[in-house]
Design brief:
Layout lengths: L3 H4 L3 E5 L4 H12 L3 E6 L2 H13 L4 E5 L5 H15 L4 E4 L4 E2 L6 H29 L2 E6 L12 H21 L4 E8 L2 E2 L5 H6 L3 E2 H13 L4 E4 L1 H12 L2 H9 L9 E2 L1
Parallel strand pairs: 1-2, 1-4, 2-3, 4-6, 6-7, 7-10, 8-9
Antiparallel strand pairs: 5-11
Helix pairs in contact: 2-8, 4-5, 5-6
The protein binds NADP nicotinamide-adenine-dinucleotide phosphate.
Length: about 260
């Protein structure tokens, strides 16, 4: 459960709010009385999610925008703030997965642009207002894949490691000014980003459960949210191994979706 007294009346912006974890975050926030603005590129899923949010009696808005476009995202945030009020909580959830092997510089660049620059662009759009008001929360959805490089996932892992390091530094700058910065690192969550092979491989966290964990972490001002704990621990243990042993272990892991071009 999340705290209604924290979320009620708050203006919450979510990139990637039309699908998966971002959509579940929007639904959970409106259920607790937040006004929610969602951002994603494709209009049909964006409009379908907006209709779902409004069907719950919520004040909600949606704007189609590519998070890799810094100016476009800044304009989208300004428009949403005009309609919903100054942003209290911003969540950078937009993301894509593309296979990195064989390596293609353009595809790898797209992953970095959306996953890493998308988070930076949202931070740049919301932080000036939050810092001026001396309150607010920014959360970036990274991944447990940020901890170790996984085969076939060079760009994805690099993009998520960038988000972790970016937010870690930003926290040092923002917290003294009253703005909380939270990094969420999920394991495998059941969303359209996950392949059937991953779905078959084990018990997945639902998007609704992931959303609850992320929102609860934000309301408590947590620096980092890792789940499930066992997967996070395994990744950290792998990180602590000498590189040659770590490589041997990781080469034997099932690839995170061989042919996956998702999101
Ligand atoms: N599912 C997992 O197992 C898992 C695990 C760890 C971390 N994550 C992270 O969690 C976040 C959400 O993933 P998900 O599983 O919920 O995926 P999803 O269901 O595929 O949703 C991705 C969302 O991001 C939006 N998006 C993608 N590219 C965008 C762009 N350039 N500009 C604006 N919006 C964009 C998508 O809408 P459009 O395509 O219409 O733009 C969609 O709303 C991602 O950052 C992902 O890396 C997921």
């Amino acid at each position: 459960m999340i705290s209604k007294s924290f979320w009620h009346g708050k203006s919450v912006l979510v990139t990637g709010g039309s699908s998966g974890i971002g959509r579940a975050i929007g639904l959970a926030a409106v259920a607790s009385g937040s006004r929610v603005g969602i951002i994603a590129r494709k209009r049909p899923p964006l409009e379908a999610t907006l209709a779902d949010l409004r069907a719950r009696g919520a004040i909600a808005e949606a704007i189609a925008c590519d998070v890799a476009d810094a100016e476009g995202l800044r304009a989208a945030v300004t428009m949403l703030e005009e309609r919903l009020g100054s942003c209290d909580v911003a969540i950078a959830c937009a993301g894509i997965h593309r296979t990195s092997w064989p390596l293609d510089a353009a595809i790898a660049g797209e992953v970095i642009d959306v996953n890493a620059k998308g988070c930076i662009n949202l931070a740049a759009a919301v932080l000036p207002g939050m810092l001026a008001r001396r309150r607010g929360s920014l959360c970036g959805v990274a991944s447990i894949a940020a901890v170790v490089g996984l085969p076939g996932n060079a760009a994805y892992c690099a993009s998520k490691a960038a988000v972790v390091a970016f937010l870690e530094s930003l926290r040092l700058d923002c917290q003294p000014a009253g703005v909380d910065i939270t990094t969420a690192c999920p394991g495998v969550v059941d969303t359209p980003m996950v392949t059937d092979a991953e779905r078959a491989a084990g018990r997945l966290i639902t998007a609704a459960a992931a959303a609850t964990l992320i929102l609860r972490g934000i309301e408590r001002g947590r620096a980092e949210i890792w789940f499930p704990r066992r997967t996070a621990l395994a990744a950290r243990l792998a990180r602590s191994l000498p590189a040659t042993i770590r490589d041997w272990v990781l080469r034997r892991q099932p690839r995170m979706a061989e042919s996956s071009d998702r999101g």
